[in-house]
Amino acid sequence: MTDPQQPAWYVYLVRAANQALYCGISLDAHKRFAQHCAGKGARFFATSPAQALVYIEECADKSTALRRELAIKRLPKQAKEQLLLAPTNQLLGEPVSLA
């Protein structure tokens, strides 16, 4: 799916303590999740801390990841919840929690 000369980008979803889903992109979704848990970046988590990394989808490049992120952000919450069960989810059945 990716060009060996170009690193893969990832779209990810993080569940907050209030059950909201945050969508972002990164070269390393696990590292970015750790940053969210540590209170770095995304003001989204100021009122409700990050609880679990629940979705990761690989994209060929940054441009593709940005377009996919925008598409996911436009989905209603119910559709985002269904996305967690989609075969594109590299964490299917194995969310990464704070614990």
Notes on the structure:
The protein has helices at 29-37, 62-73, 77-83, and strands spanning 9-16, 21-26, 50-59, 96-97. With 99 residues, it is an alpha+beta fold. The protein has a single domain, classed as GIY-YIG endonuclease (3-Layer(aba) Sandwich), CATH 3.40.1440.10. The protein has a four-stranded antiparallel β-sheet with strand order 2-1-3-4, with helices on both faces. A hairpin with a 4-residue loop joins β1 (9-16) and β2 (21-26). The model has no long low-confidence stretch (mean pLDDT 90).
Domain count? 1
The quaternary structure here is single chain
CATH architecture: 3-Layer(aba) Sandwich
Q: According to CATH, what is the class?
A: Alpha Beta
Q: What overall form do the CA principal axes indicate?
A: globular
The major beta sheet can be summarized as: 4 strands, antiparallel
Structural Rg: 13 Å
> Which ranges are low-confidence, i.e. pLDDT below 50, for 5 or more consecutive residues?
none
- Proportion in β-strands: 25-35%
What name does the CATH topology carry?
GIY-YIG endonuclease
Contiguous helical run count: 3
Distance between the termini: 32 Å
What labels would you give this structure?
3 helices, alpha+beta, GIY-YIG endonuclease
Please render the helix and strand layout as text.
Layout lengths: L8 E8 L4 E6 L2 H9 L12 E10 L2 H12 L3 H7 L12 E2 L2
Antiparallel strand pairs: 1-2, 1-3, 3-4
